[in-house]
Amino acid sequence: MKVMIEIDGAMEETVITIQAKEWTTELEELVKRVKASQPGRLIGVKDEQSILLDPAKVDFVYSENRKIIAAADQQRIELKMKLYEVEAMLAPRFFTRFSKSVIGNLHQVEKFELSFNGNLCVYFYSGNKEYVSRSFAGAVKDKLMGGFKNGS
């Protein structure tokens, strides 16, 4: 892979152009890393105040009683977004689906254990824990152990 950087003072914003013969998983990973480095915050509501959340500090986002909640440390903050919108925004930041109603931050996972029923229990550095359903457990385990290769 060849990297070319052109500095031009007349440019109003940074533009990244990728030229390739075909789309590869390496290119997909590169695009995800570039998108993840861009600033982006979640806006939540707690006690009638708007709160800006750094996605890197969020352990997981889940759906409960038709509300979308972000778990950051021991706080629970409601987000005014749909779960699929949160997932699309956070996928480049190493968030992945844990179940139909949970998206987790793989960078915040401290340890995990596989239970006898096939579910995966994930423990976060903050002390939070969440379960990964059987249908997503294999993919999450592979991503945790494999260093996020071939996907988010």
UniProtKB/TrEMBL annotation:
It comes from the Bacteria. PROSITE patterns: HTH_LYTTR. Residues 42-146 form the HTH LytTR-type domain. The keyword Transcription applies. It holds the Pfam family LytTR. SMART domains: LytTR. Keywords: Cytoplasm, DNA-binding, Transcription, Transcription regulation. This is LytTR family transcriptional regulator. It comes from Metabacillus flavus.
